[in-house]
Amino acid sequence: MNKINLPQAAKLTSPNPVSLVCTQKPDGLTNLATVSWWTYLSFNPNMIAFAMAKTSYSGEMVQNSRKVILTIPGAELSEAAMGCGSTTGRNTDKVAKFDIELAEVEGSSIKAPVHSRVAIVCGLKEFYETGDHYLYICDVEQVYGNEAEEALFAWNGYSQVRPAK
Q1: CA distance to 16, 31, 69, 100, per residue, from 28 (Å)
Q2: What integer pLDDT is reported at residue 58 of this predicted model?
Q3: Residue 15 reports pLDDT greater than 90
Q4: How far is CA 101 from the centre of its chain?
Q5: Does position 49 have pLDDT exceeding 90, yes or no?
Q6: 119-123 average pLDDT score
Q7: Where are the domains of the chain?
Q8: Which residues form the Flavin reductase like domain (predicted)?
């Protein structure tokens, strides 16, 4: 084995899961941020975790409202997922910019993309500083799924987003 850095390791461990963190902005609009690291923490009680950069506007929204929906985007959203990961919602309406169709989600005032394989409605339990990111630990309130949607994955160190085929 050769000594490598962590970004190189990310390429070697592809594919990685891709998710969209859905939050509600103060004006009521939905903001979407692409996140490539999330995990199940517990099934009793139901809990998940995800990591976001400290500078993330969506992270601010999660901290302020303590509500979030984590979705697994469908294949139709591959370009939008890349765009949502490289654009800030602080001064951009990503839903309009990337032409993402949203749907109401029962039990939440936050909307989620129609083309989602899974939507996990959560309340923020706590968050921790982890270097240049925060780790958000969430209690799962509701889970919705659509097997007809094909899940997206990140490839080559997050340089591509596409289904795992």
Answers
A1: 31, 9, 15, 16
A2: 96
A3: no
A4: 16
A5: yes
A6: 97
A7: 6-162
A8: 12-160
What is the C-alpha separation between 14 and 113, in angstroms, rounded?
Answer: 24
pTM of the model: 0.92
**pLDDT on residue 157:** 73
What sign for the dihedral angle of Cα 138, 139, 144, 150?
positive
DSSP string, 61-119: HHHHH-EEEEEEEBGGGHHHHHHHHSS-SSS--HHHHTT--EE--TT-SS-EESSEEEE
Q: Indicate the average pLDDT of the chain.
A: 92
**pLDDT tens sequence across 71-117:** 999 999 999 998 888 888 899 999 999 999 999 999 899 999 999 99
DSSP states of 40-51 = EEEETTEEEEEE
- Would you state the pLDDT for residue 4? 84
Question: What is the length of the chain?
Answer: 165
Distance (Å, rounded) from C-alpha 98 to C-alpha 103?
15
Tokens of 134: 């925060």
Residue type, 116: S
Phi and psi (nearest 5°) for 25? -75, 165
Joined tokens for residue 56: 């993330």
